[in-house]
Structure formats: structure tokens, C-alpha cells
Amino acid sequence: MGRVVVVSNRVAVPRRGEPSAGGLAVALKDVLKASGGLWFGWSGETRKNPTLEPRQVRAGGIDYATIDLSDEDHKGFYAGYSNNTLWPLFHFRLGLMEYDRAEAASYRKVNRDFAQALLPLLGPEDTVWIHDYQMIPMAAELRALGAQQRIGFFLHIPFPPFAVLSALPDAERLLRDLLAYDLVGVQTKRDLAGMINCFQDGLGLTPDATGGVRGEVAGQMRRAQLSAHPIGIDTRGFATLARKAAYGPETQRLTASMGDRALIVGAERLDYTKGLPHRMRGFAALLANFPEHLNKVTYLQVAARSRNEVASYRNLRRELDSLAGRINGDYAEFDWTPVRYVARAVARDTLAGFYRAARVGLVTPLRDGMNLVAKEYVAAQDPEDPGVLVLSSFAGAAETMEGALLVNPLDAEAMGETLDKALKMPLPERRERWENMMRGLEEQTATRWAESFLAELEELPLPEQDLLWAAPTRS
Ligand code: ADQ
């Protein structure tokens, strides 16, 4: 068996003095280490006239190869097409989606550049695993250059049905690009249904009995297997982190400042898919409709700033500043601030301690591929006195986390009622719900996710592709 080669837009090259990476990077590094693998992608740097000669370093038994992007490509490919077109589209936010032909061309060019830079580094036996929406056309570009290795793709964000995807002028091409992969993985059954619907309505391709679709791409007939592989976290590792962090200075300061009030916690990147304004309105509905919680509960929202170069993110920031100010203005007492809003990233162990200190984890995205915060919150709890997860039914995590209280984030009153229920939930019910979720999290870890995806990819019969090779090619 050859190496595993991971490709992602950003590469987690270890740097001295930087905090340890999250569960996803750890899981990928484990599979890379086991196969003597390579991680390839963008360096995070932009420069004038970058070359396609990758910079290579070796660290912790893994090879890293990265290339730089020009400012222009970074703007068109990353800020433009990836984050201003595909991100809102795949999260069902057509009103926020913009489209620009030059940016679409830049997206394609960067994917072609990535393919050209990676190809000379690939051995014939390698298995390539490409990640996320920034890189969808990369396998088609590799195939056009003659790559015959097994190539898999995993989409971390939702996959919408064709009624939504068809708003994209390049929808059919993007779907055809997926056929260049041997395996296309998504997070949930709902995403799988969306993708199958797109192949049917967009390209007229129906999956065969074993869940694969066949069609032409880059002048070849190919078959792509489609399947759902829900991502997990390093459950044990995160639980240990939270247990230790509970005694750390930050968590101690937080709990001391709370007195005997209950804590509701929310944490994410400051992103419009995460439903932050809706969450603040839901919390306001709790205070308005259940006055017994006044001066008895505090909502701490930690929101790391993100993608500041995109206007919709700057607008969100302004909206949240004003909402938090208004709720506090309406309800605060001289000794109580209902909303504590911290607009920056905090260290991983600090966050773990905050989750553990919170009676309620409030995770209410409008759409989310999976949502790891929901899983981290549960893993962080004290088994003797666990908190309650309030979770949006539009997060991928809702498909498997049956112990959570599910809400529709658009219904502020319902969110207020659910928060009231969570705050009043007796210990036996909290324990039962928590144990139910924890069992699932211990089975579905990040490592299990990576291994099961790669096992499915490596078991796919390659010779079949050779047979398909003989099919008519494009002139
Ligand atoms: P994201 O959209 O980034 O991931 P998520 O899965 O919740 O969302 O992961 C966020 C990570 O950042 C978590 O590990 C969390 O602890 C951390 N984090 C959140 N707020 C933070 C803060 N203020 N400071 C520091 N760290 C913070 C994408 C998809 C998701 C999918 C993942 C993995 O959008 O749906 O679950 O990839 O596939």
C-alpha cells in the first residue's frame, strides 16, 4: 500500500510556540503518520508571481508541501468564489451569494495550479484525499494531467439539493467535477440525499445499486462512489482537556464571577451560518417570557472573528454588537450582565473549561455540515452533573445526537422555551441524555472517521475504472 496524501486549502504545518491543533488535524496527522504520508496545500502566504514549486518540510513523521498564492488568485479563489459564492450557496443562503465570472475562473486556475504542483510528488500507489469546497475541481484537473491514483473527496459543509445548487451558473460543471473522484464523502444522510438529487436533476445520473454514479469527466468515463461519513472529535482527549481546564485560572475566574447563576455557553467562528443573532433573540425570549430566570442566568458567547475581508461578515459583527447591547440595556441589573459577548478566539483548553462550567451548551446554526462544538460540549461535561445540549435541527450533528434538545433557530420563542426546559431539567434526565450522546461520541471519533473513509476508498475496485476508460471520449 502507498502513502496517504491529504490535500486541503490550508495546511496545519506544526509551528513552534503555537497551541496544539484541533481534533480534525490530529486525526488526519494520525493517518498520515501511519502511512508515512504527505499533506499538501496552500501555505497561507501570498506573494507576487509565486512558483508552483512546493516548499517541503518534514515534521513529526509527516511530509508537508505547500505553495503560495498570488494576491489576485487569493482574492478571486478564496475570498471570492470559495467564500462569497460556494459557502453561502452550500449553506442555503442564496440571498448572500454573489457570482463573478473572473472569480470562478480564478477558482479553476488555483485548482489547476494545485494539481500541477502536486502531480510530480505523487507515487503510483498513493491514495489522495482532497478536502472541502475550495478544492472540488482538483481531481478533474489531476485526471486531465493523467493521474490514475485513487482519489477521494470529503465535503465538510452541507450539500444542498438541486433546487438550491442550480442557482450557480457553474452547477453542472461542479457536479461533473465530482465524478473524477473514486469516493465522494459527505457528513450526513441529508447531505447524501441532496447530492443524489443534484446528480439526478442536474446531470440525469441515477446512482447504481451500490451507491455509485457513472458519467463523463475530463474526457473519461468514471464511476464515483457516494457515501456519508459523519465526522467526530477526539472524545477522550477532549474530556481529559476539560477535566484539567476546570481547575485552570480562566475557568476559575469565570465560575467565581457567576456566583450561583447558571451559565449558557455558545462558541464559534463569527459566521452568518451559525445563527448568532437568532440565538441572542432566543435568549432574549427566555428573559422576556420566563422572568424567573432574570438575574439567575448568564449567556456567554465566544465568537472568533473570521473572514473579515467579506462584507457580510463585517455586517454580522455590527448586528451582534448592537443586539448584545440592546439585550443588556433592556435586562441588565447593576450587578448582572445577561449577555457576555467576547468577539475573539480563545485557547482550546480555556474553551473546554468554559463548556464544562456551563449548564447549557447553546449550538444553533442555521445550517452546518456537522458542528464540532456540539460534540465538544458533550465530551467536556462532568459525568456526575452534566449540562444540557440545545441543538439546532439544521446542524449535521442533530442526525445522531439524540440526547440533545432540538430547536428551530428561526423560532425565538421556541428557543426561549427550550432554554427554560434545559435550565430546569432534573439531574437523572440530564445524565440519561448525556450518557446516550457520549456513547455515540466514543464510537464515532475523528480517528474512526478518517479510517473508515480511507478504508472505503482503498477497497473500491480500481480495475473497474480501466474498463470504463474505454468508453467514448470527448473530442
Ligand atoms: P467550522 O464551521 O469551523 O467547521 P465547527 O465544526 O463547529 O465549525 O468547528 C469549530 C472549531 O473551532 C471547534 O473545534 C471549536 O472548538 C473551535 N472554536 C469555536 N469557537 C472558538 C473560539 N471563539 N475560539 C477558539 N476556538 C473556537 C467546518 C464545518 C462544520 C464541520 C467542521 C468539521 O462548517 O460543519 O463540523 O468543518 O468537518
UniProtKB/TrEMBL annotation:
GO MF, one example: alpha,alpha-trehalose-phosphate synthase (UDP-forming) activity
Biological process terms in GO annotation: trehalose biosynthetic process
Source organism, top-level taxon: Bacteria
Pfam families: Glyco_transf_20
InterPro entries membership: Glyco_trans_20
UniProt cross-references to PANTHER family, sorted A to Z: BCDNA.GH08860 (PTHR10788:SF106), TREHALOSE-6-PHOSPHATE SYNTHASE (PTHR10788)
Family in the record: Belongs to the glycosyltransferase 20 family.
Annotated protein name in UniProt: Trehalose-6-phosphate synthase
Organism in which the protein naturally occurs: Teichococcus aestuarii
Source lineage: Bacteria, Pseudomonadati, Pseudomonadota, Alphaproteobacteria, Acetobacterales
